[in-house]
Write a structure and sequence with these properties.
This protein has 558 residues and is mainly α. Helices cover 45% and strands 10% of the residues. The chain contains 24 helices and 16 strands. Glutamic acid (GLU) binds next to loops.
């Protein structure tokens, strides 16, 4: 063991330029003036150029809990792995989350600007802070420089494997933990690269208790690994930056994905060694997905699942509000009942509770998500659908954007079909689907499609007769009852039956049902056997187009 003086000597050799003390740093980060129960939470992504769907989920949880408690939501960028970093990564996170209504009180607002008094909120701008704490730990003998090379580490691992003991840098295997001042000085003089490691005093045979605010109570083994705190490039590891940043920023609960749960013993030792009060944890389980035809569960994967990338929802124009609603259901399953009881209430009114989180893992199901999207879009007005489709199209579909811009009233009328009354249509999942709705109303698209063939149900010459006769009686001013009566009358005249039971009993007497007559008109006007309400479709198309299409169809029926 080294003496106190020796440790101070080593700290000075390692960090001659670090003059600030831990006390100086704490003065710059005074305790926050918050009331009991107000939560200060952070979302701490790495700017890798990819926004995972799970990040929206985790950040939504944190921001919502902070808002609910009248607390503070912080964004912190963890860019200490320079290899993984991507240019524009911060904007991608900030703007990506903003699109879902997830905004922070403190943190970066774009690539260059940050707001808040507890910054910088980008870890690469906090290197001086980590050094102060590293120096302090070395002085106190709780951390030390380690000059071991990768080859030596590999050698140690092989020996450990041969002996059948745990692999890693710990205990007697940690050859630099008790090195003399002279040994250290020699390496430094030779300019050898080094890392700073924790001088662990944990005992793997001892355990401690902790309570995760989501997962519950656990007994965990102590850490005994001399893990790296500062890398040779002066950047901190996640393990070192986490207690320092979360303490200085006054975080009241660390919410982070479950993959970090295994590191809790390291973090408990670090909080102690740094002299910090332990911050509580909540580890929500990651978003899972059914795999293998529903037989197994696995994590939603960036590599395998397009829906793991937030860009997927943005490019397809999924309504963000519905995604947030779905995430709330995944987080607290009682949200679903709440929504049914409060159909028109803003989601902000719902109280998310950590104790109600599903411990088994949140099963992400795109089909359920799409159902929620459909329901959500069904609550929008035709004008809203128009605006949001246009916003989406401006970014992703120039052709549709042009069409929407040049035909505003017409398009709103199209979106308005079956949008009032008892049965609201639910065929739009995402704003990208809006184009499909326009298809039958614009000749540019209409002309590309071919007629569905129904000649096996109604002979072509009969179809021709129906259409020609209908042109004569068609009056665009008729209301829907008169409209339908006319179709019925025409059908009856031409030998179709308007009573289903009668038709079933005496099929041979009829050419078909009035439904078949309507189908002929539908195909003539839309080219399809299925369409939104035909009366409304004809109203929106207008007399000229309707007649033109009927005439064209009659000509086809030869
Ligand atoms: N940067 C870490 C990650 O992206 C953050 C974990 C945490 O929230 O503490 O996984």
């Amino acid at each position: 063991m080294r003496t106190k003086d020796e440790n101070i000597q080593i700290a000075e050799l390692l960090f001659p330029d670090v003059k600030e003390t831990v006390g100086d740093i704490f003065k710059k980060y005074p305790k926050r003036n918050i009331k009991e129960g107000e939560m200060v939470l952070r979302f701490a992504p790495s700017p890798t150029g990819f926004l995972h769907t799970g990040s929206v989920y985790t950040s939504m949880v944190g921001v919502k809990l902070a808002r609910q408690s009248n607390g503070i939501a912080i964004l912190r960028i963890e860019d200490t792995d320079k290899k993984r970093e991507v240019e524009g990564g911060i904007s991608l996170i900030v703007n990506g989350l903003k699109g879902f209504g997830i905004e922070f009180d403190e943190g970066p607002i774009n690539e260059t600007e940050q707001v808040g008094e507890y910054g910088p909120y980008i870890q690469s701008q906090r290197l001086d802070i980590y050094k102060v704490f590293a120096k302090d730990m070395v002085e106190r003998g709780t951390a030390y420089p380690c000059f071991i090379t990768d080859e030596e580490l590999e050698q140690i691992r092989k020996e450990q494997e041969k002996l059948g003991v745990r692999t890693g840098y710990y205990g007697d295997w940690a050859k630099w933990r008790n090195a003399t001042v002279e040994d250290i000085e020699k390496e430094l003089k030779e300019g050898k690269p080094f890392v700073i490691r924790l001088y662990s005093t944990g005992d793997i045979d001892k355990s401690f208790e902790m309570t995760d605010r989501i997962k519950g109570r656990f007994t965990l083994r102590e850490n005994d690994m001399d893990i790296v705190l500062l890398k040779s490039d002066g950047f901190p590891t996640y393990h070192f930056a986490h207690p320092i940043d979360d303490t200085l920023m006054g975080i009241t609960l660390v919410i982070r994905t479950e993959e970090w749960f295994a590191s809790v013993p390291i973090h408990y030792e670090l909080f102690k060694k740094l002299g910090f009060k332990q911050i509580e944890y909540a580890h929500p389980s990651p978003l899972m997905k059914l795999d293998n035809e529903g037989k197994s569960k696995r994590k939603l994967s960036k590599r395998k699942d397009p829906e793991a990338d937030v860009q997927y929802y943005i490019e397809n124009g999924y309504p963000n509000e519905a995604i947030i609603e779905y995430f709330l259901t995944l987080a607290n399953s009682n949200f679903y009942d709440w929504r049914i009881q409060n159909p028109d209430v803003d989601t902000n009114e719902f109280q998310l509770k950590l104790e109600k989180f599903n411990k088994a893992g949140a099963l992400f199901d795109i089909v359920k998500l799409e159902d929620i999207c459909k329901d959500y879009i069904a609550t929008l007005s035709a004008e809203e659908i128009y605006e949001r489709s246009l916003n989406w199209a401006r970014e992703y579909d120039e052709e549709e954007a042009k069409l929407l811009e040049e035909n505003k009233e017409y398009c709103i009328n199209i979106f308005n079909i079956e949008r009032s009354g008892q049965k609201i249509r639910k065929d739009i999942v995402k704003f990208k689907d809006s184009k499909e709705q326009l298809r039958i109303f614009f000749d540019t698209f209409f002309d590309e499609d071919s007629y569905e063939d129904i000649s096996d149900r109604v002979d072509k010459d009969v179809q021709k007769e129906i259409v020609e006769k209908y042109i004569d009686i068609y009056n665009p001013d008729d209301d829907s009852t008169v409209w339908f009566d006319n179709v019925k009358k025409l059908g009856e005249e031409l030998g179709f039956c308007s009573d289903r039971k009668e038709y079933e009993a005496n099929r041979e007497k009829y050419k078909g049902t009035v439904g078949d007559v309507a189908m002929v008109l539908r195909v003539a006007i839309t080219k399809k056997t299925q369409s939104p309400d035909l009366y409304q479709v004809m109203n929106v198309l207008g007399k000229e187009k309707v007649v033109q299409r009927l005439e064209k169809y009659a000509l086809e029926m030869v």
